Amino acid sequence: RKAYLSLKRFSWENLTLTPIMSTDILSIKDLQAKRENLVYMARSAEVAERYEDMCKIMKLLVQWDGTSLSADERNLLSVAYKNVIGMRRASCRTLKEYKNSDWLDKYKLLVEDELKDICKEILGLLQKTLIPDVKNEIKQCENAEGQKDKEKDLQEALVFYLKMTGDYHRYLAEIFTDDNENVEAAQSTYKAALDIAEEHLIPTHPIRLGLALNFSVCYYEILKDQPKACELAKGAFDAAISKLDSIDEASYKDSTLIMQLLRDNLTLWTTTENNEDDGEDVTNAE
Asked: Which residues of the chain register pLDDT less than 70?
């Protein structure tokens, strides 16, 4: 009912389609029309909370040759896969609380395989298409004059994609605890993203803050390095506080929310260090 009411309020006047199949979109000759329709479909799927459909649509958009994603399109990609993987992560955590049995073990494997397949799909898009493409565009800008603004946007996109890559390796590492490859991949990718972010993004930028938040969570939960997690979170928080007056209005809400999450995690982690607690872990991540 919620999805129906949301769609009822959604404006469809700019899009005319027959009953929707992805091949209908792909058959349109004009590339821009394809992009517009796919983005429109992705937004519609988000309103309807049909996140699996949203992933399929965004995958098609990523795979178009000669196109790169705008900031809004990157966010759609992130929202789609984050919601789909979030359900599987929650299911895996819940099922771990149950006593093992033959049938339950098989069910756990089924859910874990779904999570692994989703992670591999988005990691494939990131590592084979999105990251190489944006790196090539950055090289072109470096060799051209008057491209500083474009290069800045591309560096932001690169940090965004590297952060996503680290996130999905972290999701795999938290479920498949014996797989050190994903632990190492998460740490190295987050580190690469942070190096670029510190050079090209201001301390209050929400992508830089979100990266610091998730990287610190990786240190705390995956690498079991509480001092490093606190150091990273505190450094990001303090750097942002010192530049809070210069934060732009468009990102103020997102930036201050992430700063609050960083502070909450610091409080939790330092309290846990001083007073061991058997309660539920409520560490915050983006």
From this structure: 1-33, 65-66, 272-282
